[in-house]
Amino acid sequence: MNRKNVTVILPKGEKEDYYKAKFIELMRFIVANHKDAVKFEQKGESMKLIIKNNFQSPEKLLEFLVDFCQNIGRLFEKRPVIEPSVN
What we know:
By secondary structure, the chain is an alpha+beta fold. It has one domain (5-76). 43% of the residues lie in helices and 21% in strands. It has two helices and three strands. It has a three-stranded antiparallel beta sheet, with no helix packed on it. The radius of gyration is 15 Å and the shape is globular. The termini are far apart.
């Protein structure tokens, strides 16, 4: 975390299950709800979420981060993994 950005480092590329199922849902959620505040950045095998720190106070940033994390937690709660069908 710094004055301009908050960086969230996602699992590395070897976490194949994460990128086959959860990452797609995470990406859809961010694009639908936070496309102006949260950006994806990839460097090599490292994927990061970059959250712009345009908040009026540290407390507002913290409120956003808590709400953001809770929403992501709910996004992944008890969701069955749907395997692609092979025809």
